[in-house]
Design a protein that fits this description.
Elements lengths: L6 E7 L19 H9 L1 E3 L2 E2 L5 H10 L3 H4 L15 H7 L3 E6 L16 E4 L4 H10 L6 H14 L7 H18 L3 H11 L7 E7 L27 H4 L4 H35 L6 E6 L5 E2 L5 E2 L6 H4 E2 L1 E4 L8 E3 L3 E2 L3 H9 L24 E5 L8 H4 L10 E6 L2 E6 L5 E5 L10 E3 L1 H11 L2 H4 L18 H7 L4
Parallel strand pairs: 1-6, 1-7, 2-12, 3-13, 4-5, 4-6
Antiparallel strand pairs: 2-11, 3-10, 7-11, 8-9, 14-15, 15-16, 16-17, 17-18
């Protein structure tokens, strides 16, 4: 008989976007057998939205249930301060054994994300030096930060092709590091931890896998031979964007194909976890939630990877929930859903209840679109991609000054710095269709009715140097990013 409190396994497949998994559980879908299996036995949320466009604030939201503008962790220099207790803390108080296994350094650092986990394991070999580097960089808005920014812009202003030799060396070393982080050792340790759990005490496991995170193996033997035009994929995003459109397109296509292979590797790790639950005869007593902290961009909205922007490619993520026997819920729903729902769902499972209301619910339990609230994603403007390297740790590029809203009537994106508001009607492809764009007082008035006040008035992490006003990005740059010529 199933215990009153369900075991809760949360697997975060870092950087995996919904766009690549639209067909999960359906004939002709991607080669992801473990995700397919979960989709067949659980509920698939095809319109799930990440709270932020990068790892740290998104994880903080999916563990606290509140958006980054409220919990305040929007930079690697910011630590969790006053928020509701995180999921692991609340489950620990209810008698759960809790374990965190992460290939991502952000989760095991000084941010406070590991609070409540009785066991924390990471494959990060140099997390402390990386955090030390962050602490040693110039403060946002300082003269030192401005100097780094100037050098960065000088570098990316050169011809991108000239940087390929250096890019090759850096890419090779980054791939070696990724292999150390994303090897099978940590997942196997998590599986051993599952096998050691006592049936007298429920457990909660959080596993983060970075297989789908850049860099990508462009010369993988499963791909066609690498063409010269695709070598630009070795470069950092800011340099790749300097290339000609034709060369850039070829490189991005190669990157995306390599990315799909890495999603398959992440799926294999999920299969190991499911196998461990089965061998321990715990699968039927366990809720398995699989999602991602954010997606990945390969040219959508003029951006690469997840350094900026709130396109669908980076904001929409997979979300599959397989519930224990007795409270199962199967099917697919296209209701807009935020990852901020995960803590409430988990606490319901800890009470032995269905997170979706009634027991043994069928898909008809969910409305297709009617009656659902809006959900949001916070991030930095895509036009700041060239400054990401300079202020990655200082926080200037990830100010969360761009906010996206998804709801029944469509999508809206508001830039807090320029005052630009872009809106798309429901039913169009948001990443390719041109939006209606307004500026000034009209845009601000509309945005006040669309976004929560705490998002509209979130302070910038980068104060203006010398006390002047922030530089306003030209309207033309916004229009170009949204597809206007």
């Amino acid at each position: 008989m199933r215990p009153a409190s369900a075991n809760i396994v949360l697997v975060v497949l870092d950087c995996v976007r919904q766009k690549n998994l639209e067909g999960v559980g359906l004939a002709g879908g991607p080669a992801t057998p473990s995700l397919d299996r979960l989709a067949e036995d659980g509920m698939v949320f095809s319109n799930a939205v990440a709270p932020a466009n990068w790892t740290l604030p998104s994880h903080m939201s999916l563990l606290s249930g509140i958006y980054p503008s409220e919990h305040g962790v929007r930079s690697v220099q910011r630590r969790l301060e006053s928020t509701p207790p995180l999921l692991a803390q609340r489950l620990s108080e209810q008698g759960y054994s809790t374990g965190l296994f992460t290939e991502q350094a952000h989760l095991s650092g000084d941010s406070g994300l590991a609070e409540g986990y009785q066991l924390c394991r990471t494959s990060e070999p140099f997390g402390a030096p990386v955090r030390g580097l962050a602490a040693g960089l110039p403060a946002p808005g300082s003269a030192g930060a401005g100097a780094i920014e100037a050098l960065s812009r000088l570098f990316v202003g050169r011809r991108a092709a000239l940087a390929i030799p250096g890019g090759f060396v850096i890419h090779r070393e980054r791939l070696r590091l990724k292999e150390r982080l994303a090897g099978p050792g940590l997942v196997r340790e998590a599986c051993r931890w599952i096998a050691e759990r006592s049936r007298d005490r429920p457990f909660h496991l959080l596993l983060n896998c970075v297989d789908a995170h850049e860099p990508y193996p462009l010369s993988d033997r499963r791909l066609p031979p690498l063409r010269p035009s695709e070598l630009l994929g070795l470069l950092p995003a800011s340099l790749l964007l300097q290339a000609s459109e034709r060369s850039r397109r070829a490189a991005l296509e190669r990157l995306e194909r390599a990315y799909a292979l890495e999603i398959q590797r992440a799926d294999q790790k999920l299969g190991l976890v499911l196998g461990a639950l089965e061998r321990a005869k715990l699968l039927d007593e366990t809720a398995v939630l699989v999602t991602s902290d954010h997606g990945q961009q390969f040219g959508e909205s003029g951006n690469v990877f997840h350094s900026g922007g709130v396109s669908d490619a980076v904001a929409r993520v997979p979300l599959i929930v397989r519930l224990p026997d007795g409270i199962s819920c199967r099917g697919r729903t296209d209701r807009w859903t935020s990852l901020c729902s995960i803590p409430d769902w988990s606490l319901a499972l800890a009470r032995g209840e269905s997170p979706f209301g009634q027991r043994d619910q069928q898909p008809s339990r969910w409305p297709t679109l009617a009656g659902q609230p809006a959900v949001y994603c916070e991030g930095s403007p895509a036009h700041e991609v060239n400054s990401v390297f300079a202020h990655r740790f200082a926080g200037a590029a990830w100010n969360h000054r761009l906010i996206a809203r998804y709801a029944r009537e469509g999508k809206a994106v508001f830039d807090l710095d320029s005052g630009a508001l872009a809106r798309w009607s429901e039913g169009v492809e948001y990443d390719t269709a041109a939006p209606d764009v307004t500026f000034g007082e009209e845009a601000s008035a509309q945005a006040e009715g669309l976004f929560p006040p705490i998002m509209m008035h979130a302070p910038s992490l980068l104060p203006p140097a010398g006390g002047g006003s922030r530089t306003i990005t030209p309207i033309e740059e916004h229009l170009a990013a949204w597809g206007y010529s």
